[in-house]
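idk why but the lab printer keeps eating my pages so im just putting this in chat instead. protein + pyridoxal-5'-phosphate:
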Amino acid sequence: MGFDAAALPTFPWDLLEPLKRQAAEHPGGLIDLSVGAPVDPTPDELREAVAAASDSPGYPPTVGTAELRHAIVHHYAAERGVTGLPADAVLPTIGSKEMVALLPSLLGLGAGDVVVHPVVAYPTYDVGARLAGARPVPADSPAQVPGDLAAKVRLVWLNSPANPDGRVLGVEALGEWVAWAGSVGAVVASDECYAALAWADPWASDGVPSLLDGRVGGGSLAGRLALYSLSKQSNAAGYRAAWVAGDPALIGRLAALRKHMGMMMPGPVQAAMAAALGDAGAVARQRQVYGRRRRILLEALDQAGYVVEGSGAGLYLWFTTPDRQDCWRTVADLASLGILVAPGAFYGQAGRAFVRMALTGSDQAVAEAAARLAGA
Ligand SMILES: Cc1ncc(COP(=O)(O)O)c(C=O)c1O
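predcted complex ->
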């Protein structure tokens, strides 16, 4: 069976266009905090590396250059406390969204199979399941998976820190999913693209645990995959620089398919990614920038009477009104101030009373947003 495009919902951001036009009519101009695309400059290390590698007449390796694979393995050891990852446990991807959308298909899932994803979630987990003809089922713990579907689950998506609500899964919660997935024969894939952005303790002090962490469920990599991306941590969404890592047998299967499909990360981007992973300083500086903007927006939302929930990590503030009004009303209220945010309904029915504000405004835009909220 091929991709089932008819099974897909309307592309969510298209639904926001009318409110974006309304917000743009504000005399002070549009402050777009909806999508969460980075606005700060790409660090020089990446730009210089991509330029230095621009003479690229041959095909790049699908599995990544030895230098890149080493850089990813080193990143896990230095930043995530994951040691001993073999070089054949990593595979570059062209941004992480394509892997989120393709993984169910690449794993051979189809009709009759179930893909579990978080209840309030990045929409592409649902999309990827539908593209494969599988059934997406929301659940935040194994106990929430309907009993009659458990035996059909082939893939469980975790997202920690989560988009949109910033929830972090600790070692125990990760281990619970790993044990459960093992018992039904499912793969667990953890999307960890916001791992560098932890604000609240214990994650800010101890770091956000990876699914590949040796403390999780016995430490074997079998049946586990973790996704990571440089889009946010390195202001490199335009580079499409990401990877999947974990169970070498699964990675080998994915790599074999991607060789046939020609899905390889461009050579100059491989060089840039390796360079970025060697520069933890740039990531730390960007974290400080987001931390500062986050404090300003948190205070402004609080003073304007909004109620922020979760949001202890990640790139977003997830908030509602005291009476939990429908998200589209809150989006419209903020659009009248020229501020565009994402409606929680984009992330599932359970998000209907919430909206999501990205920390990705420039310092000037964030200060202006706070001033408009204060004046409202
Ligand atoms: C949870 C999550 N996963 C994956 C992505 C995709 O990121 P990219 O394709 O830029 O790596 C995003 C982007 O916003 C995201 O929020």
